[in-house]
Write a sequence for this structure.
């Protein structure tokens, strides 16, 4: 269980988080969704006791995050967005360091490498791994210690779709084992697919939260029917009775190429709430 | 204790993959042995090179090794992950320090093959003790430096001062006066005689003060900056 209420944090004169509150029940995947610079990493640092904060309170595993003990830390797995891997050491040796620190039996090292699909790279130096493999090595380090709560800061950012899918599978697998997982992302499809609950974070404020489907349902007024005409023109109609005549008329003239229904997504909800896109266009 | 050992073992594995540290450690002993064996003009005092290079070696290698290891771990975020895994800063520094000391003493052992067996225990003792001062100074620099680049340049400055002062002191009286306040100068003086009698009271005080200063500086740097 992760609980926070009223968390506020400023760097010098810049307010980065204001009044952040939510509860995450055990065994859930919680997604913090927001564009770059929204304050996601800052919140993870606060919740994992790496950063002090100005106001509010946060509890994790029934402990105040301001006073996490060494024993508490052993139950918390953290993967931050920067790599923290010994490049010259092999994957195996990288994990061995943490196996020894946490007193994890040696067999777990290979088991975990298998779980993340790195068993063939066990002897390779980390410097020879691709970016996706490095993320999986970091995930292995987190999973190996069997934490109760896992924090993943943008685990899939910058990875190709195939690698993203692999990582989603690993995360879902961990959820089945009862882990509570807190992840950040600016990919709304990822959030909708993986998370039981999401919070939309914009400029340090949570603008909405709930189950992804539930949030989208609340924005059903965004639902549209999109007609692509043979002339190449697109016609958008509201999802209501009034559109029936118009559609019939166009159909009778056989001028419709395709018909789509456009439903609200986390992306369009975020856009409506903040006027901003989640993913920066390059 | 376990964590210190884990850090120590990690460094040992890294030694065989990290050429720069290995080079640091073996360069002086190898040059010394080669010079002792090949370059021997008439009238040169016995073990001239061993004595001169030993003072440089102890001022240089433990310091720069310590600095570069800490700076690299800070820059690559591996140190942060260790600290988040409940490795205490003092455990980390002890592990790294012990590692640097051990490999330095290994190199010192190689150098010792050039001197008379009767002097070896004295030689190892002096080198082992003064290496601790260098390790503490190296840790200060490593803690203070923002990244690997600045660690290397700051470390090199301190290191050059410490290791070349005794040599320059041989040629210039003014420098000798300054060098008198630096431990490497007294290490050199002691090695010259290869006996404790070379260490006068003022010399002993200076070495002791150097040690205390280095440790105090280190604690101050640590208090101020921590390891992040
Ligand atoms: N140590 C710091 N000092 C000053 N400002 C910071 C610091 N860390 C983050 N910030 C600022 O806080 C804001 C949120 O940053 P961050 O939490 O990293 O965002 P995200 O992870 O969502 O991209 C950014 O505007 C960033 O510039
Ligand atoms: Mg971030």
């Amino acid at each position: 269980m992760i609980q926070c209420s009223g968390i506020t944090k400023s760097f010098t004169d810049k307010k980065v988080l204001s009044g952040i509150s939510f509860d995450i029940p055990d065994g859930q995947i919680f997604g913090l969704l927001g564009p770059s610079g929204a304050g996601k990493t800052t919140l993870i640092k606060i919740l994992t006791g790496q950063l002090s904060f100005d106001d509010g309170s946060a509890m994790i595993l029934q402990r105040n995050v301001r006073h996490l003990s060494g024993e508490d830390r052993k139950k918390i797995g953290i993967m931050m967005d920067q790599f923290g891997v010994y490049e010259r050491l092999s994957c195996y040796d990288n994990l061995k360091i943490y196996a020894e620190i946490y007193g994890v039996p040696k067999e777990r090292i290979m088991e975990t490498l298998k779980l993340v699909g790195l068993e063939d790279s066990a002897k390779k130096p980390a410097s020879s791994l691709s970016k996706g493999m490095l993320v999986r090595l970091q995930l292995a380090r987190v999973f190996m210690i069997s934490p109760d709560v896992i924090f993943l800061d943008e685990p899939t950012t910058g990875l190709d779709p195939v690698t993203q899918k692999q990582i989603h599978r690993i995360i879902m697998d961990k959820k089945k084992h009862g882990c509570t997982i807190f992840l950040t992302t600016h990919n709304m499809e990822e959030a909708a697919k993986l998370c039981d609950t999401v919070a939309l974070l914009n400029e340090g404020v949570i603008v909405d939260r709930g189950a992804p489907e539930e949030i989208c349902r609340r924005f059903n007024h965004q639902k549209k029917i999109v007609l692509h005409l043979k002339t190449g023109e697109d016609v958008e109609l509201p999802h209501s009775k009034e559109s029936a005549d118009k559609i019939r008329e166009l159909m009778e003239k056989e001028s419709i190429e395709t018909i789509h229904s456009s439903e609200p997504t986390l992306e369009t909800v975020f856009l409506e709430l903040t006027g901003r896109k989640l993913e920066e266009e390059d | 204790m376990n964590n210190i050992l884990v850090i120590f073992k990690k460094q040992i594995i890294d030694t065989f993959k990290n050429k720069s540290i290995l080079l640091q450690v073996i360069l002086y002993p190898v040059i010394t042995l080669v010079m002792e064996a090949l370059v021997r003009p008439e009238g040169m005092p016995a073990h001239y090179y061993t004595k001169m290079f030993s003072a440089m070696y102890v001022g240089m290698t433990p310091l720069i090794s310590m600095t570069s290891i800490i700076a690299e771990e800070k820059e690559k975020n591996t140190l942060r992950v260790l600290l988040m895994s409940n490795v205490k800063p003092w455990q980390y520094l002890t592990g790294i320090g012990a590692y640097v000391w051990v490999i330095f003493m290994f190199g010192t052992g190689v150098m010792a093959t050039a001197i008379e067996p009767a002097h070896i225990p004295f030689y190892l003792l002096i080198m082992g003790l003064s290496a601790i001062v260098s390790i503490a100074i190296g840790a200060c620099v490593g803690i203070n430096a923002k990244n690997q680049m600045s660690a290397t340049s700051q470390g090199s400055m301190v290191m050059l001062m410490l290791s070349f002062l005794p040599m320059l002191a041989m040629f210039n009286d003014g420098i000798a006066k300054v060098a008198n306040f630096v431990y490497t100068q007294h290490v050199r003086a002691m090695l010259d005689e290869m006996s404790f009698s070379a260490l006068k009271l003022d010399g002993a005080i200076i070495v002791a003060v150097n040690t205390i200063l280095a440790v105090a500086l280190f604690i101050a740097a640590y208090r101020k900056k921590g390891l992040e």
Observations:
- Chain B has a mean pLDDT of 85.
- The pocket of magnesium ion (ligand 2) is lined by residues A 40-41, 81, 153-154 (CB under 6 Å).
- The interface with chain A takes residues 2-3, 5-6, 9-10, 13-14, 17-18, 76-78, 80-82, 84-87 of chain B (CB under 8 Å).
